[in-house]
Design brief:
The structure holds 2 protein chains of 2 kinds. Chain A has helices at 31-39, 43-51, 111-114, 118-128, 144-153, 155-160, 188-194, 219-225, 241-258, 279-312, 317-320, 389-394, 409-416, 421-427, 437-442, 451-461, and strands at residues 6-9, 12-15, 25-28, 61-71, 73-81, 88-89, 101-110, 207-216, 231-238, 274-275, 323-329, 331-338, 341-348, 350-352, 371-374, 382-386, 398-400, 431-434, 465-477. By secondary structure, chain A is an alpha+beta fold. Chain A has one domain: Alpha-Beta Complex (tRNA-splicing ligase RtcB). In chain A, a hairpin with a 2-residue loop joins β12 and β13. The chains are: A alpha+beta, B alpha+beta. The A-B interface holds A 40, 43-44, 68-72, 75, 92, 95-97, 132-134, 189, 192-193, 196, 202-204, 242, 245-246, 248-249, 252-253, 256-257, 268-270, 272, 405-411, 435-439, 442, 478 and B 6, 8-13, 39, 57, 60-61, 64, 68, 72, 74-76, 78, 106-107, 110, 113-116, 118-119, 121-125, 139, 141-142.
Amino acid sequence: MDVSFVQEDRYTFRIPRKGKMRVGAVFFASKRILAHLESEDYASLVQLMNVATLPGVVEPALAMPDIHWGYGFPIGGVAAFDPEAGGVVSPGGVGFDINCGVRLLASGLERRDLEPRKAWLADRLYERVPAGVGSKRRDVKLNRRSLARVLEEGAGWVVRQGWGEPDDLEFIESGGRLEGADPGRVSERAYERGLPQLGTLGSGNHFLEVQYVEQVYDPEAAAAFGLHQDQVTVLIHTGSRGLGHQVCQDHVQKFLQVAPKYGIELVDRQLAAAPIESPEGRAYLGAMAAAANYAFANRQLITHYVREAFEAAGFAPREHALRVVYDLAHNNAKFESHAGRRVLVHRKGATRAFGPGAPDLPPAYASVGQPVLVPGDMGRYSYVLVGTEGAMEKSFGSSCHGAGRVLSRTRSKKQVKGRDLVRELAAAGIELRATSRRTVAEEAPEAYKDVAEVVKVVEGAGIGRRVARLRPLVAVKG
Amino acid sequence: MARLRMLEHTADVGFEVEADSLAGVFEAAADALLHVLFDVGLPRQGRRRDRLTLTAPDLETLLVRWLDELIYRVQTRGEVPVRTRARLEKVPEGQRLEAELDLLPFEEVRDRFAGEAKAATYHGLAVEEADGRFRARVILDV
């Protein structure tokens, strides 16, 4: 497909409406990011143009600067759909890992407190936070009934079992529970897959990092978030595990069957969609919210394990004082108001980035905007940004979710062949613990764009502002 | 004789398999999945044998269901299908696959586990015949 775009300002590019596109598309990029897009033959921009063909899509279909080639939607894709204009919901616009996201914890520890016990803590985290297949915690036993409550109540259910602090919930997007969850719309296979996996990290790009605040850019916002120079933080990246994957697949297949009935033409079958206001659309949204609640609960339970690991490493609860700064999803679809319209915003590898005064912010953050958590790679750094009014105006209150891959997993493995990444990272002061050597090679720092470049574009485009940069000290990979 | 080629995909993992029958393509796709989930060649002899039947309106959906079923067997049931034998037939509701799985407990090959796959996607999915050979192309979300 021919991909042509025009530059609107330094970091904003527009793809004019053409062919089957119902609206134009906008993406944010620098020269370097444009070169990455060209190197994958603009596959991700073609995917963005495909999104713009879906019924009821609101101008424009968007991609954040960490855009790269995914399946269906591009990763970094944001699209809003108007239910009153025949707008659709697409499970492919949310992804298999429903409500996958990132949670940042801040501690009462300074970097110098941690250094002497860093390797010990890395081992404790690796022992106590299960990766997934074949690794189960004996202390958390779920049955189908309690899992149904998790699906309805999200992170709150976990806290009520004693695995968390009541304050944790205030600092989770949507309070750790999406409205409208309908556990009855979740298939038995999804329940079966979800039962053994609550509180597991998963593999691939999922991780757990202990970090320190290397630099503060915005002292006011950092103070509101309770972050300061040299403070030890923890970043957790995981999602809804097999339960979410199953919910997505069940509904993609359902939607493929019903799309013709609703006259929905699909240029990519992974974009399978149904009207928001249809029985099938509502069923998916109920199941999706249930899976999202599972993801919130999963990150909550892992937070409990992280606190236990710090205690096992010799830091008493009042010493580590781990508290939730924010928990932010990057794969979901939510009803929000933008420019006076109620729309369903799909974010696939993109985060919400609400600015000051926006709804659904913890009171402590209301005057500065919500934290936007942007993981980089395990060798460099991650960022904390803050949502802006610019994001509300330009990107349906959305921003980037990470660095974005630049090398395929195969190329990454080839590139690092013969190198000992564990030793290299240790020399750089980062203790790495991982289940699989292959995951380490696939997740090598050079497999990702420099997240600083992505963040520069976000800031330049006005859809987020830098607050702090976090440098890893310990990385745990599934 | 089946052939497997891994495809370049920035975020995920793709493969193309080729065989001289449709059943061969489904068996090769199962092998390709194992290649993604595990590091090095696994034993081909299972400890237990199981049968399964899947139906789907079309071949592509049948392939997605087949791969998802195998992912589920590994990740939820802890059983690794080290060898599969497939049989396909057209039925009034579309396509049916009957398969026999040689299963090995996950614990026996845990040291070779390389990471999970979430699901088979429909993006770029194809099952086709050309010049008497059958091919399938799949991108997995990992």
